UniProtKB/TrEMBL annotation:
Residues 62-407 form the Protein kinase domain. PANTHER family: PROTEIN KINASE DOMAIN-CONTAINING PROTEIN-RELATED. Signal peptide: none annotated. Gene3D superfamilies: Phosphorylase Kinase, domain 1, Transferase(Phosphotransferase) domain 1. Pfam families: Pkinase. One of its GO terms (cellular component) is nucleus. It catalyses: L-threonyl-[protein] + ATP = O-phospho-L-threonyl-[protein] + ADP + H(+); L-seryl-[protein] + ATP = O-phospho-L-seryl-[protein] + ADP + H(+). This is non-specific serine/threonine protein kinase. It comes from the Eukaryota. One of its GO terms (molecular function) is ATP binding. Keywords: ATP-binding, Kinase, Nucleotide-binding, Serine/threonine-protein kinase, Transferase. GO terms for biological process: regulation of mRNA processing; spliceosomal complex assembly.
């Protein structure tokens, strides 16, 4: 009988957690003169944000614990799944937002081979649901909570720059994620930047501490037009770190359909994007290359600042790329619908924007010496190629020879394939982070 009871306890699901009761007093009221979070966006003043309150329960199981942040199209909240006894994040979209394309990408991400080594490095969706509201419903995305981004990490590292060891370990995770996206899901991210690479949370105590902090020291807030606006609360620093995870698929597109839109952050745009040639998977590799330069060299490789004083321009960006990589191949230019704005039919630069002189990758890299510098520059040259499809056959051969047998077809060059091979070869890198509080 005792054995049967033990088995019954194992088989029987745990009872749902009871919702927490959060304090209604003891918080700082933010002055009306100080704009807080959503108030910085025009959509708030048009009533586009859903009035989420700490303590609310959605779908009869997700209880809101506190606010993690907000953006132009959504607010993000830490919540408890009362049924699963776990933490989740709720991304509640504005009523004028249309995340259906993003949700379709998440569906594709869920259908890939989950045993692929890159699957665990991609932030997937647990579910989506609709919150009904008079005047227009809101959609909500449920995901596992993550710690801060690589961008946030630069502010916590003592000198703000990724070390060689941190860079190697981080890139291994990122390229595994990209291989899963490209080969298993036929998805191009198009918006890879330090803000969109997060860290898994292995130290669950920081989630409990977040809740405790909200209970003992309620978030500052204010009421505007009968809607409570909360100040965002940061998660604490974990005692140990999880894997890097590629996130935010709001700009992702299918890679099996050619397109030529303005993909990616301006200064991270690949050459095919700038001349409006067809783009696909290789734009992600270019994005990684320029992002790596930012993180490791602590400055942008390309800025695209036009001397007309109006800020970024494609002509200024192209001129800088020519200065670094030399003139582009004619066959790439022949594919671009904007080529005639910058080049003649022979591929000669005709823009009034002068090409900077005396610059090169070698001269621009100042942190490394000797063999380390040589290898790093080889890898950068591999990712930063004019022609996206360069050396794909060599890339496939190198990847097929790697320990993980990853078979990506979407690298920019043989040097990039070596970077994939380096990241996938099973090298163990111990990361020791000197973080500031």
């Amino acid at each position: 009988m005792s054995t049967l009871l033990k088995r019954a306890r194992v088989i029987s699901p745990r009872k749902p957690l009871l919702p927490l009761r959060f304090p209604k007093t003891g918080f700082h009221v933010v002055s009306d003169d100080l704009a807080l979070d959503e108030e910085h966006y025009e959509g708030f003043h048009r009533g586009h944000y859903f009035p989420v309150n700490i303590g609310d329960v959605f779908k009869s199981k997700y209880q809101v614990l506190g606010k993690l942040g907000c953006g132009e199209t959504s607010t993000v909240w830490l919540a408890r799944d009362l049924e699963a006894h776990s933490h989740v994040t709720l991304k509640v979209y504005t009523r004028d937002g249309n995340p259906q394309d993003e949700f379709q990408i998440y569906q594709r991400l869920s259908k890939g081979n989950h045993s692929h080594p890159g699957y665990s490095h991609v932030r997937t969706a647990l579910e989506t649901f609709t919150i009904p509201r008079l005047g227009g419903d809101h959609t909500c995305l449920v995901q596992k909570p993550m710690w801060e981004s690589w961008e946030d990490l630069t502010y916590r590292i003592s000198d703000g720059i990724f070390t060689e060891e941190l860079l190697k370990g981080s890139l291994k995770h990122l390229f595994l994620a990209l291989d899963y996206l490209h080969t298993e899901c036929q998805v191009v991210h198009t918006d890879i930047k330090a803000d969109n690479v997060l860290q898994q949370i292995k130290d669950q105590s920081i989630l409990d501490d977040f809740t405790k902090g909200e209970m003992e020291h309620p978030s500052p807030r204010k009421i505007v037009d009968d809607m409570t606006i909360y100040a965002s609360r940061q998660l604490g620093v974990p005692r140990y770190f999880g894997r890097a995870v590629l996130s935010d698929f709001g700009s992702a597109v299918r890679g099996d359909k050619k397109r030529n839109h303005n993909a990616g952050p301006q200064i991270y745009r690949a050459p095919e994007v700038m001349v409006k040639a067809a783009l696909s998977y290789p734009v992600d590799i270019w994005n990684v290359g320029v992002m790596v330069w930012d993180l490791f060299e602590d400055r942008h490789l390309f800025r695209g600042d036009d001397p007309d004083g109006k800020g970024y321009s494609t002509r200024a960006h192209l001129a800088e790329v020519i200065s670094m990589l030399g003139p582009p191949p004619l066959d790439l230019l022949e594919r671009g619908t904007r080529t005639a704005e910058f080049f003649d039919k022979e591929g000669k630069w005709i823009s009034e924007m002068p090409v900077p002189q005396g610059t090169s990758l070698e001269e621009s890299e100042i942190r490394l010496q000797g063999r380390n510098k040589e290898v790093f520059l080889d890898l950068m040259r591999g990712m930063l190629q004019w022609r996206p499809e360069d050396s794909e056959a060599v890339a496939r051969t190198s990847l097929d020879n790697s320990d993980h047998r990853v078979t990506s077809k979407h690298t920019r060059s043989k040097e990039t394939s070596y970077l994939y091979w380096l990241c996938f070869s099973g090298i163990q890198v111990n990361l020791v982070l000197n973080l500031t509080a």
